[in-house]
Amino acid sequence: MGDKPKTVRQPMPPLKVWFGPVAVAWLIPGGGHFLLNRRGRAALLFFAITSMFLLGLMMRGALFRPKVGDLLTTLIYCGGFLGDLAAGLLYLLTVWLGYSQPEVAGHVHDYGTKFLVGAGLLNVLAMVDAYEIAAGRKN
Amino acid sequence: MPKMTLTHFEAALLFAFFTSIVFGVVSHGDDRNRWRYGLKCFAYFLVALFGIGWLMYLGHG
Prior knowledge:
The complex is a heterodimer of chains A (139) and B (61).
Chain A: H1 15-27, H2 31-35, H3 39-58, H4 71-85, H5 89-96, H6 107-134
Helix pairs in contact in A: 1-6, 3-6, 4-6
Chain B: H1 8-26, H2 31-60
Helix pairs in contact in B: 1-2
């Protein structure tokens, strides 16, 4: 039996190094990369995530609200809410300006809902990337 | 807010396009590798889209 090489756990970088870029990355898609002088990547992230979110709204997708019930309901509604919330300012503006839609049956609305959650989840990837760049773990 | 109606194919294609951009941007390596990874993801999405589409069509009888 060969010994598995042990992965060395890197120490957590100080909060002040990564908190700013990650917080801006949450609020504005691509904002963290912009703050870290990765302008091209920031523009691409902003374009992709914002377009996806706006298309979701134009398809009359619904925003999730946290709901507790059986396990599946809790997972879908609480997970969906977190996914929506991860879009940052896009989500907050949508709720504040009253663009949040009620849930409607139909494949286009369904795709819209998935686009809204998808945009938030892609923004989570962008936040993680901004964290890794700020922490010096990635170029 | 204008309303938009898309077919299944158009919606899946747009989803694949935007997701591939983000996957490419957050991937490791230099810019050339990022482009390649993004394009590869998009190609995989298309293969899955057509593959699963045909599978559902044939499985439906």
